[in-house]
Amino acid sequence: MDFTSLCTDFYKRQTLIDSYSVPIMPVGHPSNWVVPSDTTERVVLNPISRRQAGRLRASRHISSLERTTTQNCRRYGQPVHNSRRCSNPFLINEGPSRVVPEEYRCKCSICHTVGHNGQTCPTRDSTVE
Predict the structure, then answer these.
(1) What contacts 93, CB < 8 A, 6 or more positions away?
(2) What is the DSSP code string of 38-89?
(3) Residue closest to 115 by CA, chosen among 123, 124, 106
(4) Which entry of 4, 26, 70, 104 is 20 to 30 Å from 90 by CA?
(5) Residue 28, by phi and psi: left (phi above 0), alpha (psi -120 to 50) or beta?
(6) Residue 92 per-residue DSSP state
(7) Longest pairwise C-alpha distance within the chain
(8) Cα 63–51–64 angle (5° rounding)?
(9) Per-residue model confidence as pLDDT tens digits over 104-122
(10) Are the CB atoms for 101 and 107 separated by under 8 Å?
(11) In terms of C-beta distances under 8 Å and separation of at least 24 residues, what long-range contacts does 23-26 make, across chains too?
């Protein structure tokens, strides 16, 4: 059985050879082109298009004029993550290099001072009386 009879002429080797047998002429420099006058007078405008609905892609191309911001952790100032994704626990003052800012330390719910909580507050008994 001849399998080439099952295939169209488009996929045959001779068709490929015939399609490239015609010599390809170079186009040349655009200044040497002969362009009709009615073609040069036509104004070609951009197609009318609308922005697609929905949220923009996260991997969009950011222009050079647009300012970029980096995420920093509010607790530790590291530019790798933000405070929600911070894997480090709150630090306790154990030395000058491990000082947590006052605004991020836990405060007492009764006297609003740092260092203890509401259950161990020294003024708790005096406020109950």
Answers:
(1) 99, 100
(2) HHHT--PPPPP--PPSSPPPTTPPPPTTS-------TTT--TT--STT--SP
(3) 106
(4) 70
(5) left
(6) P
(7) 108
(8) 5
(9) 677 888 888 887 878 888 8
(10) no
(11) none
Over residues 1-22, the pLDDT tens digits come to 788 788 899 899 999 999 989 8
Phi, psi of 82 (to 5 degrees): -105, 180
pLDDT band at 98 (very low <50, low <70, confident <90, very high): low
Query: Dihedral through CA 121, CA 122, CA 124, CA 129, nearest 10?
Result: 180
Report percent pLDDT > 70 for the chain. Answer: 72
DSSP class of 22? S
Which residue has tokens 């790798």? Answer: 80
Task: State yes or no: pLDDT of 68 exceeds 60.
Answer: yes
Task: Please tell me what DSSP assigns to residue 105.
Answer: S
pLDDT band, residue 71 (cuts 50/70/90): confident
Backbone angles phi, psi at 125, to 5 degrees: -65, -35
Q: Is the pTM value of this prediction over 0.90? A: no
